[in-house]
Write a structure and sequence with these properties.
2 domains; Leucine-rich repeat, LRR (right-handed beta-alpha superhelix); single chain; mainly beta; 9-stranded mixed β-sheet
Length: 327
Amino acid sequence: MKKGLFAGLAVLLICMFPVWCHAQEETETEVFYAGEWEYCLNEDGTATISHWEGEAESLVIPGELDGRRVTGIGDHAFLACTGLKLVTIPDSVTKIGPSAFYECSGLTGVKIPDSVTEIEAYAFCLCTSLKDMEIPDFTVRIGKMAFTASALTKVTIPASVEEIGSWAFGTCLSLKEIDVAPGNENYAVMDHALTETKTKTLICYPCGLTDPEYTIPEGITRIGRSTFSYCDNLKRITIPEGVTEIGELAFSNCRSLAETNIPQSVEKIDDLGFCNCQSLTDLTIPDSVIEIGRDAFYQCSELTLTVSKDSYAEQYAEENELPFRQA
């Protein structure tokens, strides 16, 4: 386990929490109590769990509280329950809310029923021991960073999934395999990487793969947000012609990446696109690039850019005091 990596990620995410908590405090919702459970009522009279006061290591969440059917696991309901190891969610639940199990660092397994259609943002983020989990067959939506920094080794995306948020499986250092069930019209796996088919966007390369080289498949037009973040085993990445955009944080913290290329088709390199690529020494920016985002090469301490005279890239390098040479 790379403690420094997760510590930095934890600080980043915890800094976001005051915004969410403030928004939650402004919402006046009546809270009910049933033993070690707190819950709120939904408009249809069903219950959403809002907090758990227990200390068990293995937990079966009840399907009813005070005779009310439990249909949701609410925001932050099990926040930082670090002693929790195994959780079984009842088949009455249809939604797992934002940050529901955030930083449950001791959680090793969770059973999610097929009734769950939504797994919201950050739901299992920083569950650094979570190895045993299957996404239910009828899930429609997986929120951003839903499983970031978990210990998953394999993920299967069901045919029902229509939306996967950015970095949903980011920094899963043990993740070696992503599959997509037959019949999914929105996602596919191309040469190990998860791809959004309609936009031809590469969205997740498994961090646990040990191959030192990777060639992005032909036909991809965009490298999505954080697609290769923390893929420390990669030393060389080849980007094909046809890619027009390198997304935010796309190659961030690829600390072993020593060689890559930017083809003539690329027009935009987004914010922090190559942030902290410590081993990258040379990179040619073609004239086709007309937009480079904030801190695109931040903490690339060994990097020298090669640019054309009077190009946008040369102007960017000068304005940001980056080492460069003219082609």
